[in-house]
Structure to design on (351 residues):
């Protein structure tokens, strides 16, 4: 679909959102010509677009640590040998955040919220997952991601992306249509607690007979009092979470959706059709929050390829690339912390 320049204002809005959304993942390929796109080069681009804030994440810089547990109900244990799906309780360390590398960004600046979790399984294995409150990713490949980051780079004169460059990018990448349709109607919510968080990338559940089933998952909120964020308040999300946790633990249902033959397993820019079989695997319970500079999530790299036996990555090229970029960002953050004054420390650089 051609994007006409008279729609540039709308395109710039969506493009800016898309650029932040792409940064919400941060991935890299090792085969982009003519210059090889390395993890370092990708993180440099994230840093150049958002500005350098030493000691903070290069993306998801503004957030809060949380902790709790996952109560498995056994319903998914027929499809995966992972202990987390049994009838047991698994400790969880997590983080809520908004996309972007500015730790002082207003909470209402983007309509996307993220949830990152580390499940500490009883056998010493871990399951780490990074999810976002959106149904689909803008692009399919590392090359397209890099092109979008460059198209969405802020113009020094305006501080905003160039609408013409974004229009050209979208015209060259029709796979962004599903995300752009969602972005047109998305609005910043008033709470982390009322959001649904999707894996977006696909994975495989592996059972005791080593049969692999392609899935995506989501944390579906049990809180139903969602609404738009308050106008004129830049920092309402952490305060809302603190108030809710002061009243009661907050809960989400882990919903696993199974692909059918022909569903795009390795393409995060394509939505699976409605009506696919689902299984509710248990309940995530968050009962406490902590500051991001001293909480238990501070030194966790939420690499989505850290998986227990019974869960395997798909061949989606974004997964391995996310892992590489997260590692590079983490190393930058820890190196910077060593030179920060006093004992101040911040959370890891990307996820």
């Amino acid at each position: 679909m051609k994007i006409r320049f008279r729609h540039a204002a709308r395109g710039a809005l969506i493009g800016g959102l898309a650029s932040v959304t792409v940064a919400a993942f941060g991935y890299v390929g090792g085969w982009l010509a003519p210059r090889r796109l390395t993890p370092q080069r990708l993180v440099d681009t994230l840093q150049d677009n958002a500005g350098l804030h030493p000691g903070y994440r290069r993306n998801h810089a503004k957030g809060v640590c949380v902790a709790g547990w996952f109560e498995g109900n056994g319903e998914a244990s027929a499809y995966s040998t992972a202990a987390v799906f049994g009838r047991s309780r698994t400790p969880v360390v997590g983080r809520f955040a908004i996309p972007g590398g500015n730790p002082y960004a207003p909470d209402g600046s983007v309509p996307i919220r993220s949830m990152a979790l580390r499940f500490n399984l009883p056998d010493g294995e871990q399951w780490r997952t990074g999810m976002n409150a959106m149904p689909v990713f803008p692009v399919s490949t590392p090359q397209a991601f890099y092109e979008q980051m460059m198209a969405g780079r802020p113009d020094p004169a305006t501080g905003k992306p160039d609408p013409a460059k974004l229009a050209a990018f979208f015209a060259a990448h029709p796979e962004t249509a599903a995300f752009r349709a969602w972005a047109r109607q998305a609005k910043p919510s008033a709470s982390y607690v009322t959001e649904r968080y999707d894996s977006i990338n696909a994975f495989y559940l592996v059972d005791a007979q080593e049969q692999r089933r392609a899935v995506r998952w989501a944390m579906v909120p049990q809180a139903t009092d969602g609404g738009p964020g308050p106008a004129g308040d830049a920092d309402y999300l952490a305060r809302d979470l603190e108030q809710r946790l002061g009243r009661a633990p907050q809960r989400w249902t882990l919903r696993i959706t199974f692909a059918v033959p022909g569903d795009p397993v390795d393409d995060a820019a394509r939505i699976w059709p409605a009506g696919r079989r689902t299984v509710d695997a248990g309940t995530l319970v968050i009962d406490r929050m902590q500051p991001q500079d001293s909480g238990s999530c501070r030194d966790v790299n939420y690499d989505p390829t850290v998986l227990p036996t019974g869960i395997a990555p798909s061949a989606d090229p974004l997964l391995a690339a996310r892992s590489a970029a997260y590692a590079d960002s983490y190393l930058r953050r820890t190196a910077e912390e060593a030179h920060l004054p006093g004992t101040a420390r911040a959370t890891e650089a990307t996820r």
The mean pLDDT is 86. The radius of gyration is 19 Å. Residues 77 and 85 are 5 Å apart (CA to CA). Strands lie at 62-72, 89-98, 114-120, 126-132, 197-198, 203-206, 212-221, 250-258, 278-290, 311-313.
